[in-house]
Amino acid sequence: MSPGASAEAVLGTAGIARRDVGPAESERASRAWWDADADDYLDEHLADIGQVDFVWSPEALHEADARLLGEVEGRRVLEVGCGSAPCSRWLATQGAHPVALDLSASMLRHARAAGTGTGVVVPLVQAGAEHLPFADASFDIACSAYGAVPFVADPRQVMREVCRVLRPGGRWVFAVNHPMRWMFPDDPGPDGLVVGQSYFDRTPYLEVDDDGAATYVEHHRTMGDRIRDVVAAGLVLDDVVEPEWPEGHERVWGQWSPLRGRLFPGTAIFVTHRPA
Ligand SMILES: C[S@@+](CC[C@H](N)C(=O)[O-])C[C@H]1O[C@@H](n2cnc3c(N)ncnc32)[C@H](O)[C@@H]1O
């Protein structure tokens, strides 16, 4: 991630720290961060994610091409960590019945404005992914394009919650930064090709204010951890998609760049389902 300078100013970010951080502090930091950064994030990435489009990752993998969710027409779909909700709006245009959930009120304000602006209005819910405010078996499909999962202290709880709200047989597909990226500095250039830390070091990355309170948090899980999280929640893992950097795609998105993307994966997309 490349946190924006103005969110840092608003939150009083004073430095970087590496320490354990629990679910409550993580959620508090993420809400404050995404509230403060929402305008800048969308200024920078609207061209990448669109208003009515489902883009899985900086490799520009579109759901319209990848079809990782299977048939969506007529399906009830939960999007977890929807941001401004372009994916949910795209799903609505495909005949799905999406519900777009996010922790950040500022992100959801953008989602509401974009719904009005595009004429594709989807239901929006403000909540954290570790406690989904839905009844059991409410959805046929759940999805997340870099929403919530990399930012929570207890991703296994997110897996359990999504499994609970899916109907038996329902599919859960989520994209996160590829675990191997953790070893490298968040630098899209040549410096980002040199290993800087252990893949096995799960100590979270934090930005902190003068009092040491977290203003931004990212959690690391190895590939094995992610698979164990899925399986421990009672889900079945069907596939792990590692999108390759497409020929001719020159767009730099934070730490994701053509230089690095041609050498190693930047995104992992886990395709899972709740057993029937
Ligand atoms: C990188 S954005 C991705 C969203 C969307 N796919 C996009 O490209 O705009 C991450 C989103 O996850 C949300 N988020 C972070 N932690 C969350 C949590 N614990 N529960 C729900 N949403 C969360 C943030 O508010 C933010 O909108």
UniProtKB/TrEMBL annotation:
Keyword presence, Membrane: no
Pfam families: Methyltransf_11
Presence of keyword Transferase: yes
Domain of life: Bacteria
Record Gene3D superfamilies: Vaccinia Virus protein VP39
Listed GO biological process terms: methylation
A Gene Ontology molecular function term of the record: S-adenosylmethionine-dependent methyltransferase activity
Keywords: Methyltransferase, Transferase
InterPro entries, per database record: Methyltransf_11, Methyltransf_Superfamily, SAM-dependent_MTases_sf
Domain Methyltransferase type: start-end pairs: 78-174
Matching PANTHER family: METHYLTRANSFERASE, N6-ADENOSINE-METHYLTRANSFERASE TMT1A
Protein name listed in UniProt: SAM-dependent methyltransferase
